[in-house]
Amino acid sequence: MQLLRFLLALWLFAARPGFSMVFFYHIPKCSGSSVTAILSYYYSAHDIYRIYASQSICPYGEKWWKDPFYLEQLEFSTVKNFPFSAFAPNERCFVNGHLYFRDGFPYFPHAINIVFLRDPIQRLLSHQNFWKMCAEYSPEESMNQSHLIPLGPPIDVAHNLQVYYLSSFSWLDPTISLQQHLDSAKYNLLHYFDFVGITEHFDASINALCKMLGLEKISAIPVCNRLASRGNHYSEEKIEELKKINWADYELYHFAQELFEKKFRHNTTVLQQPVVHSFADRIEYTPDQAIVGNGWMIRECCPSYPYYWRTSFVKNPHLVFSLNKRDYRVRFLAKTAVERSIESLQLRVNGYLIDLKKMQQGEWYLFEGALPEKAVGKGEPTTFAFQIDELLDLDQNSGGRLLGLSLARFEIEPF
What we know:
By secondary structure, this protein is of the alpha+beta class. The chain is 27% helix and 21% strand. It has helices at residues 2-14, 32-40, 101-104, 120-137, 139-142, 154-157, 161-166, 178-192, 202-212, 236-245, 247-264; strands spanning 22-25, 48-51, 94-97, 112-117, 195-198, 283-285, 293-294, 300-301, 308-311, 318-321, 328-336, 346-349, 352-353, 356-361, 364-371, 382-387, 392-395, 401-403, 405-414. The strands form 4 sheets. Strands 6, 8, 9, 11, 14, 15 and 19 form a 7-stranded antiparallel beta sheet that branches. It has a 5-stranded parallel beta sheet with strand order 2-3-1-4-5. It is globular, with a radius of gyration of 21 Å.
């Protein structure tokens, strides 16, 4: 059945109309959070859809999202739950997620397909650092790294991941060799992807991508979900061993580099009508959604507590949203690792200090303030920067776990 879907998708791809759905295949630790944040600037909240392994699929701005669920099978199945009825076939929207090409393409053959690749060892070490951070900060999530099969540290199990993500074959099929996966991934990059970016040339890749999509250039390119460097604690011998194991990823990476230089870096083709930012009048952001800013750790939660939250590892984390220029009311739920720091909390919107009122709700505090029109960016995303005066180091013996502001919900509505 999957083969029939794939063949049908190839036929539809060959005859696709001027379609405006953008589908980003987010390979872990290949600048995906930054790419998602940048492209999200140009879409309203209701036109952004996520497909990730441990979550149901939902637009950012809706309240009807389903409860998170875990995979019952070894392969991704979340795409089967995509709410096709939520948008018209030709509606402009942005879909992104940790999804294998073989699983996404049959469902979205008309989409504009984009992907970013990264130096395999750098990707692997970053993935390993992320996994370690999960284990330290949110053990209940690190136990469900369902994109790592078999479960375990990425440095041991996540080999040639970029090849497997882009192959048309299942990586669980014992009859398919790694060389066949590699050949398939190369073919797909060359024939079915409208854009291939390189993490090591991120700014150039983003500029070329925006030009291709007809998007107005943004003044500053954000970097999201970048982990504080933990250093490389592996020997040269271990790194050489990993390079040999990940030979297919290296061959695909070099192929992608050549493709970027020859086809995309200086490309002048525009695949859709030029568009500008889609601005919203209302934002309802919860930390179980993708990070839209910087300075935050992965989401955290407690089985006995009703919230997800994100905790900052710096004193000045921020969120970024695209808003229409008008007056707003800002409301958010927060607490601080150092209790007295809650008194020092400030919120600046594009540099403008917001006067906040505070009300305690259990261990959390509800903050509310007025956001004047003059603080809202004109034609640019609006930055909400938090400031506290103290961090807490909870674990000096295992990497120095820093905790600052914790944010459980953030809402913006017209005033």
